[in-house]
Amino acid sequence: MNWRSILINPVLDKEFRLRMRTPRSAISLLAYVLVMGLIAMGIIYVSTSGGMGRSGSFDPMVSRIIFYALSFAQLIMIAFMTPALTAGVISGEREKQTLSMLLTTQQSSATIILSKLLSSLSFMTLLIVATMPVYCIVFIYGGVSPKQLVVVFLFYLFIMLLLGSIGIFFSTLFKRTIIAVIVTYGVGLVIFLGTGLIYLFAMAMTQVNYNSINPPEFSWIGYILGLNPGGALISIFEPSFSKTAFISRGGNMGTSAPIELWLEFIIVYSVVIVLMLWLAIRYIRPVRRRSKDFDMMEQNFPSEDSGNEGKIEPQQ
């Protein structure tokens, strides 16, 4: 049994070869690692020169702050790069007039969409893995466990899958790549920035309408923060952050949160990922969709010609 032919279909094989063997990929990888290294050096310099250490010795708390800052910098880099890698994979084929040929192959719509998505995310995953030596600087000073690093990297993979599924859906929906990229960045901006602003606005409104007589045990605004990647990432760093986000003013600090922010994030956006991929698979073959719609219309409103099919004209 040839496992390579099973795991790697022709579309995926072609995407891997085109994406990984170009000089642009090597330059992108080098530039990404350099940027992350410079950010790490800058954070370490600011942390150590600002008097955060204790009398010349390095405080493990400073190491954790460096790890948090690096993780957020990586999250922002993923938010910027993933839509650029995925939002043009289908619309680009359409602009090069090669999508029709691709659809005439024996590959199914799901295979094409998932192969395009997997190849794009594999390159982004390579960029993330390449920055692991930068993170190892933090382990020199302690304060962060390898388990935290693994969990954060798994969270990055989920974020990439989310942004990638949104990007490939809009790439299938729109004919021009530039429009698909802009709309994908717009949706990403709503997820990353819009949910945070809505949370701050809702928290301000809750403070204004605060009822000091019968304060609720939990505040509903915590669910809004659970939709924000930054809030979910902080809840991974600090498990008590979920309780802080849900607890209302005057509430009991001894109670636990109704749901962890990162868990809410995973559940909600897993549904979004499945929906985006399903729509992308459905819309990549517009001819088939119109054919199905035409068949349904034919069943509901049969024409005269279709009604006479199969009838034998009497001979004179």
TrEMBL record:
Q: Which GO terms describe its cellular component?
A: plasma membrane
Q: Which UniProt keywords apply?
A: Membrane, Transmembrane, Transmembrane helix
Q: Which Pfam families match?
A: ABC2_membrane_2
Which sequence ranges are marked TM in the entry?
A: 26-45, 65-90, 123-144, 150-170, 177-202, 261-281
One function term, GO molecular function aspect? ABC-type transporter activity
At the top level of its lineage, which domain of life is listed? Answer: Bacteria
Protein name stated in the entry: ABC transporter permease
Q: Which organism is it from?
A: Paenibacillus lutimineralis
